[in-house]
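Please check this:
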Amino acid sequence: MAVKIRLKRMGKIRAPYYRVVVVDSRKKRDGRVIEEIGKYHPKEEPSLIEVTSERAQYWLGVGAQPSEAVEALLKVTGDWQKFKGLPGAEGSLKLAEAKRTKADIFNEALKEAGSEPSTEAVTKKASKKAEKPAADEAPAEAPAAEAGAGETPEAAAASGDAEGEAQPAEAAAAEKTEA
């Protein structure tokens, strides 16, 4: 059986990628393969070329013939020079630089910001109309809370609810005085 090492095309129209495969020479281009020994993505920058060197050396050693395209890829990875015993077995493969992770980008942005916001908060403050009735209710509820010592438990719970409503109004008044 005549064995070839060639490319099996995959991907979409105008976005090809290939697998480097060992196949019987009588099979069609994308037909059944004996073994996949690598992949090639020509559209990436720089092109991604991954070949399992050990398996490529084995198949070349037992007589598999590479196609012209695969031979060029093997020269880039250095496998062809290693097989032929030529100098330059390290190849001329360019590696893509490592991508920065999202965590690294975030940490870098945090250092640039100095861990403190440079502007005020963006949330809108409550309108003055809403603050005035809340401020008017707060003094009226305070005497009712003081009189709550001799009340029944139901009345005490009702006055407790009124105190709960007064606390946000007091907080809003405190914020207003700070600003």
The helical segments are 53-61, 68-77, 79-84, 102-113, 128-146, 153-178. DSSP finds six helices and five strands in the chain. The chain has a mean pLDDT of 77. The chain has two domains: 3-84, 128-178.
